[in-house]
Design brief:
The protein is of the alpha/beta class and 268 residues long. The protein has a single domain, classed as 3-Layer(aba) Sandwich (Rossmann fold), CATH 3.40.50. The chain has eight helices and eight strands. α8 links the parallel β7 and β8. α4 packs across α6 and α7 packs parallel to α8. It is globular, with a radius of gyration of 18 Å. The protein binds zinc ion (ZN) (2 copies).
Length: 268
């Protein structure tokens, strides 16, 4: 009921530009960059050939990372609308693509919790919203397993190892987790936050923790062999509609063919 109320409050306009049709208008769709094979099998980053791991891989103990889209253009704006402007239906739209990108075996889904201060300011937790959008689509139970143990300092100015050590120990498990956990967040950047969550879950008894995000931020894409996207306009796998990228679609499209059906969709 609450969902229907919010649907009424938020006129469903394009989550990318805010004016075209929901969820992404044609002009925005062609700017979306889906992350598709060939890729790094561990972290899903696009590569020139299939790789077992790559320099973009998030830190241990994260086992794998998956995301449907690169964090830029309309997807970046959509995540910002979800996060800062309270466009809650965006979680549902991105959740469909996340469910498609999730080829991970798991027993449960959880999410990276917001700090209490941020949750109070924003009123809701976007990672929780995404987790609750994805869970039913892939037939996994969504459980709160983590809490913030300490407030970390500002993340933006920290990089790499520094950021990682700053995050370590900043989460604690709320309960004994199941063996294999998928951790949901909005964007994966360095993976420092997700790795800190994985540490807490592994300490509490999980054997495998992977991370699933709506988007993946990859800086410095001018890498050598195995790298991808030499320039922003080269080698793009643009999203142009259902079927153009098997296994990836966005809600609101008329589906054709079993390859564009969501995996393990349950009857409601
Ligand atoms: Zn648009
Ligand atoms: Zn990788």
């Amino acid at each position: 009921m609450l969902g229907a109320l919010f649907d009424g409050l938020f006129p469903k306009r394009c989550a990318g530009c805010g004016s075209g049709p929901w969820p992404f208008c044609a002009a925005c769709r062609v700017q979306i960059v889906p992350l598709v094979p060939p890729r790094c099998q561990r972290c899903g980053a696009p590569a020139r050939r299939e790789l077992r791991s790559c320099r973009h891989c998030p830190p241990e103990p994260l086992r794998a990372a998956r995301a449907p889209f690169l964090f830029e253009g309309p997807v970046r704006r959509a995540v910002h609308r979800l996060k800062f402007a309270g466009w809650r239906p965006v979680a549902e739209a991105l959740g469909v693509a996340m469910a498609q990108a999730c080829d991970l075996d798991a027993d449960a889904i959880t999410w990276v919790p917001l700090s209490r201060g941020r949750k109070a300011t924003r009123g809701f937790d976007q990672a929780s919203a995404l987790a609750h959008a994805v869970g039913p689509k892939i037939g996994l139970v969504v459980v709160p397993l983590l809490r913030r143990a300490a407030e970390a300092g500002p993340q933006a100015r920290r990089r790499g190892e520094e950021r990682r050590s700053a995050m370590s120990g900043s989460f604690a498990a709320l309960a004994v987790p199941p063996s294999r956990v998928v951790l949901v967040d909005d964007v994966l950047t360095t993976g420092a936050t997700a790795a800190a969550c994985a540490e807490a879950l592994v300490r509490a008894g999980a054997s495998e923790v992977s991370v699933l995000t709506a988007a993946r931020a990859i800086s410095d894409r001018e890498s050598g062999p195995g790298g991808f996207l030499r320039s922003p306009t080269q080698d793009r796998h643009l999203y142009s509609g259902p079927g153009s990228r098997p296994g990836l679609w966005l809600t609101g499209e008329r589906l054709s063919g079993s390859r564009s059906q969501p995996r393990a969709k349950r009857p409601t």
